[in-house]
């Protein structure tokens, strides 16, 4: 996994390198046509744990850097992930208690009404594996994307124990 925050954080790119010479952008977050959702929450947690262990980092570092790339499919899942993210933000020591509470409350308010009409869902589909699809999915990890490296991605997930 290669994360490129860009020069001004306006275009954040996540790439997957499955061979030394093969690097493919699998997600991005920008101010125009974003496609950030590439990780299921469980995969995200396993990756955070692995990256932290391999690179001797505190978990909050990869957690906060990769959090934007988690595809969430329901308000209840958002609440679970937000609570976990709140713990990572606390662990970072970068935020005051007031800032943390304000962030948590704002994230709940911003999304409560959105989820009633949200059309996105993780589903397992052969031969792809897990895909994120629907009108609100904004993911390259979909059965319609012939360029997503499903075979290599699924092998990497299996090696991680996902």
The portion of residues assigned to helices is 40-55%
Which regions contain 5 or more consecutive residues with pLDDT less than 50? none
C-alpha end-to-end distance: 16 Å
- How large is the radius of gyration? 16 Å
Can you list the strand order of the major beta sheet? 1-2-3
- Work out the helix count: 5
The rough form would be described as: globular
DSSP strand tally: 5
Q: How would you sum up the major sheet? A: 3 strands, antiparallel
How much of the sequence is in beta strands?
15-25%
H/E element string? EEEHHHHEEH
- Would you tell me the overall average pLDDT? 90
Structural class: alpha+beta
Quick summary of this structure?
40% of the residues lie in helices and 19% in strands.
How would you characterize this protein structure?
The chain has 162 residues and is of the alpha+beta class. Helices cover 40% and strands 19% of the residues. It is built from 5 helices and 5 strands; from the N terminus they run E-E-E-H-H-H-H-E-E-H. Strands 1-2-3 form a 3-stranded antiparallel beta sheet, with helices on one face. A two-stranded antiparallel sheet has the order 4-5. The protein is globular. 19% of the residues are buried. The model has no long low-confidence stretch (mean pLDDT 90).
Please describe the topology of this protein.
Blueprint (H helix, E strand, L loop, with lengths): L1 E3 L6 E9 L2 E9 L10 H14 L5 H7 L8 H18 L4 H15 L9 E5 L3 E5 L16 H11 L2
Antiparallel strand pairs: 1-2, 2-3, 4-5
Helix pairs in contact: 1-2, 2-3, 3-4
